[in-house]
Amino acid sequence: MGTWDTGPFDNDTAADFANALDDAEPEAREALIRGVLIRTIDATGYLAEAEEAVAAAALIAAQCQGGEPVDMSYGPETPMPAFPSDLRVLADEALARIVGEEDGPASNWVDPEDWKQWRAILTRLRAVLAPPPPSIALFDVQP
After folding, report:
1. CA angle, corner 112, sides to 108 and 116, nearest 5?
2. In sequence order, which residues have a C-beta less than 8 Å from that of residue 20 and are 6 or more positions away?
3. Are 76 and 12 in contact (CB under 8 A)?
4. Cys-Cys link to 3, which of 11, 25, 28, 135 (CB 3.0-4.6 A)?
């Protein structure tokens, strides 16, 4: 993996994924993102598409309240469609799988400080992607 920084698109694989999203028809972009997330969640053994899944999760999180915009230097240049809310859950599940995989991308970091920064980015993404708690009042208690 050619990596130059710890951001979601700061590696060759994620940058190639951004290019694929730019090359895809607008209506096909959601399917590309959904596919990489599902394949990461369902993968057995090595997580071959983990870098793409992190990039996809960053694109989804950018559309959520509290989400940060994606770095346009290496991320997609074309606007992404509005993603359905179910992609948030898939993105969070994929990130949970990536963070929990001992032999996955976490093992690729040579510098421990880079690994810590990368893991903090994934934690922030997961915090944004986590669905808000239900706001239904269980009881209406009056004095």
Report:
1. 95
2. 32
3. no
4. 11
